[in-house]
Structures are given as C-alpha cells and as structure tokens.
Known about the structure:
The chain has one domain. Helix content is 79%, strand content 0%. It contains ten helices and no strands. The protein has helices at 2-11, 18-29, 38-47, 52-76, 78-88, 95-102, 106-115, 120-129, 134-159, 162-191. The chain is globular, with a radius of gyration of 17 Å.
Amino acid sequence: MLRSLYDWTLSKVDHPHALWVLAFVSFIESSVFPIPPDVLMIPMIIARPSRAWLIASVCLIASVLGGVLGYVIGAFAFETIGQPVLETLGKADAMEAFNSRFNDFGFWAVLTAGVTPFPYKVITIMSGWTSMPLGTFIATSILARGLRFFLVAFLLWKYGAPIRDFIEQRLGLMFTLFIALLIGGFAVLKFL
C-alpha cells in the first residue's frame, strides 16, 4: 500500500495542476499522509529551477496549515483520529511519558520534526494533545518547515540534478546532526 501511495505521488509531478497537488500533499502530510512532499518538490524544482522559491513557498504554507490541522486533531479528536494515526506509525507506546515532558521541550520537538525525517505529523498531533501554545507551535513550524523546504530549494536551484541523490539519501541525517549540535550547544551554554 505504501508503495502505491509513493508511486501515485510521483505520478503527479508533471500534472498541469502540480502546484495544487503539491499543496494538497504538503497539507495532508502534516497530519495524516505518510509520503513527504519532497518526493514531488524535488522533481518539480529540478524540472523548473526558476520556480524553486514558489514551490518551496507552496510547501511551507500548506505544510504549516496542515500542521494546524494536526494540532486541532490532537487537541479535539485525539482518541478518535490522533491516537490511531500515531499507533499506525508505531509511536503510541510512549505517549503518556511524552506528554509529561513535551511542552518543556516543545519548541525543540517541533523544530526537530519539522526539518528531519521524523514524522512531522506525530509532533503536530502531540502539540495539540499536550496543549502546547498555538502561537509557539505555528512560529516554530514556520521556522522548521521554512528551513527544510527552502534549503532543499536552494540546493536544487544552485546545483541542480546532481544534488538530488544527496538530498534524498543524506539530508535527513544532516539535519539531525545539525539539530543535535544546536541542542548540544545550548546545553553547554546553559551550564557555563
């Protein structure tokens, strides 16, 4: 099933309404859809580098709006929608422990999930479930998703197709290392 969703997503790259499809995928990926918008975004930018910033902007706006939907699901429909989504992703085990610590590190959780391969939808739902302040959630989502989508757009705009393999295979790791270094740096500063 996951493979057919992936293939369907890729088939939309050349569609005349590809930006709308990209917006739709970016929106639903932030709350329930398992395929990230990158699988559409990367080939679209490689095909038309002059539209890189428009494509990244569509991803950013739709993803943040979809994140707000995930937040609402977590806040108002956790038992009926949010919990089954998290269980499907295998993230239901640590929900109670996560709830007690989440808001202490909510900014970092949203930032990390927004730029790494960690499923962003998990954080959007959990943010609503734990009652993270909506303003903090939205601001952090804009920062995180902006970093992710605009960095990918810049790399593809600047270096073109050769960077595609790097992005698809290693960017998640690079973002994870960046966040680990950033958090480590703040931890060191806190204890100095």
